[in-house]
Design brief:
The complex is a heterotrimer.
Chain A lengths: L1 E10 L7 E11 L4 E5 L6 H8 L7 E6 L2 E2 L5 H11 E4 L11 H6 L9 H14 L15 H13 L5 E5 L7 H16 L3 E5 L3 H4 L6 E6 L2 E2 L5
Chain B lengths: L11 H21 L1 H35 L6 E7 L2 E3 L1 E2 L2 H6 L4 E7 L1 E6 L4 E7 L9 E4 L1 H7 L6 E5 L5 E9 L5 H4 L2 E4 L1 H8 L5 E2 L1 E6 L5 H11 L3 E5 H39 L3 H12 L4 H32 L7 H5 L16 H20 L3 H4 L9
Parallel strand pairs in B: 6-10, 7-9
Antiparallel strand pairs in B: 1-2, 1-12, 1-13, 3-11, 4-12, 5-6, 7-10, 8-9
Helix pairs in contact in B: 1-10, 2-8, 2-10, 2-12, 8-12, 10-12
Chain C lengths: L2 H29 L1 H14 L11 H4 L22 H4 L4 H5 L6
Chain lengths: 226, 388, 102
Amino acid sequence: MIELKDIRKVFNSGKPNEFSAVQGISLSIEARKATVLKGPSGSGKTTLLSLIGCMARPTAGRIRLFDREITSLPERFLTDIRRKTFGFIFQHFNLIKGITALENAMLPAYPLGEKSSSIRKRALNLFELFNIAPKAYSRVEWLSGGEAQRVTIVRALVNNPSVIIADEPTAHLDTKLSLEFMGILAKLKEDGKTLLLASHDPVVYESAVVDRVVNLRDGRIDGAGQ
Amino acid sequence: MYPIPRLPRKCMRTWIERHRNILDFTLSSLVRRKRKNAALVSVYTLIVFLLGSVLFFTYALRQEASFLLKEAPEMIVQKLSAGRHDLIPVSYIERIRAIKGISSIKERLWGYYYDPIVGANYTLMVVEDPEVSPGFIAVGEGVSRTRLASPGDAIEFRTSQGITIELEIKKVLSSASSLVSSDLVLISEDDFRKLFGTAKGFATDLAVKVRNPRELTTIALKVAEILPDTRQILREEILRTYDAIFSWRGGILLATLFGAVLAFIIFAWDKASGLSMEEKREIGILKAIGWETSDIIRMKFWEGIVVSLSSFLMGILLAYIHVFFTSFMLFEPVLKGWATLYPAFKITPFIDGAQVASLFFLTVVPYTVATIIPSWRAAIVDPDSVMR
Amino acid sequence: MRKSSLFFLYITIQTILLGCMFTHASYKQKSDVNRLQENISLVQQLGLTDLCLFTEASYTRHLSLADFHTAFQDSPMALEHFPSGSLVPHPPAAKKMYENMD
């Protein structure tokens, strides 16, 4: 479904602090499966996620999404694809303070011009699904870690994307909540979503939900096995 | 096989809903810092209110002056002595009566009287009115108000000889005419001359009427030739005086307020340009979850509009009420100055749509621009910036 | 109600009031005709040359008739007749006499 060929990403090109985050990675992500990018920090996991998720462009190499070359697409098309195809769950939650959980969850759909009432309905259904419906109208500052994370999951799902990308999702969770999170992922996989995670947490990469683990080290793949 | 996502067709509905959604978020965002934004809107409204009040007042008064003084005397002949206005000999009338085109020449007797009891200046004018016979006067509403005197009451006047005479008020001029008659004391000729000691054979100035108004300037020149120690004041010059003073006086206040508006723009710019870390982070989050640079700009646009548009509308409405329902109450000290006698400023609401439109552009455009431009740099960050 | 709907409602009400303001102004202009007419006849009848606005000094009370020099009998900046004294400009009629001297 997603194919990467010889992807390189260089930051601060030409400057003294130039460095290669990703150096020549070729990878195939299968649809409707859960893939984990595993490796120590600095291995290029986050960069690779942002490249796959159309958040940044590779310095070299080609990316194909649904058999369509997207590396050379103009900015606007790329953004549109990103909005419709990918849902992101960030390591640091990245919720906007001072507004309600519901409004946070609805935000990704705002610029797409959909009627507010239908966005709201969809978001509230998702809140129900993840058992945080009572917290929908609370400000995000008042939510517990687990609740906040579930809000970010709803936010990632609100545009009904086919791929969910999660960057170190269990970094701020205890074991119990981490296992709950993996349970949620199992359900999403059942619903036909493709999952892509970056993590160095064994609870994640040793989970039964995960179909494939890709080891990364210093921006390269370190063996490609399950 | 998943379908390849396609670009949405641009349609009106989507456009409206997108803006409404973004506006929803902008309002939520503004409400978060309730007190600061309430203060901002209040100050902005205040500035629009002050500016609008001055504009409304000066324009309406200018219109009123041009209406009322349309029937002012066509030409006033005034004698100058050592550069100052002096009494004019009545014999001058004979010297210019022969000028072709003059239909009538009248001597005018008027002057100022300072009333120490209330510290007010009155304008005394001699009139041909059967009600204003020797011993009686007609007064303007300002005189009546300041002296707390009504018909039947008498006012004491001190003559130039130091003798006190009493004149009884026969009638009070209507308050509707306050703008032209507030400080007038209409008096008989005998009483006037008794009061001021003006000798018979002298008048304050002459009022000249002509047959053809287009010949006024020519006739005025002829008068100037015959009477070189006089000057001629034409009706058109009287009207121009009032045009000038209200633009200018409004100009002084306007200049002050312009400074205030400028200060406010600078303050708004200063606030907006130093986008706090918090705001930058939030813009980064919005970009990461799918908002484009143009969506961020739309958000900032609405932020500017919400503040400036609501301030403009409220400020203008309050200004209108202030000027035309409370008679420009807050500026009373400025207009009154040291005068004790002050007309009731009940003016007709002549308003200039062009001024209101200019004020609209002045208040809404710079502020909105000042909100958008400084956010540009934050708006163009890469979407993956929050992940790094 | 949605926040944006509330905002639009508020703006709409204000705009309607603005419309009322203009309507009120034009209505008042018509209904004040009598008062204006009365004042115009008074001006004509009494031969008035100035509006009674600032009664502090001769050159602020009778602006159009003010001569060039009376203002000088007060101190510079005319502080005792502030602000009207310092704000009242020389009327066009006063300057005319001295035009030839320029």
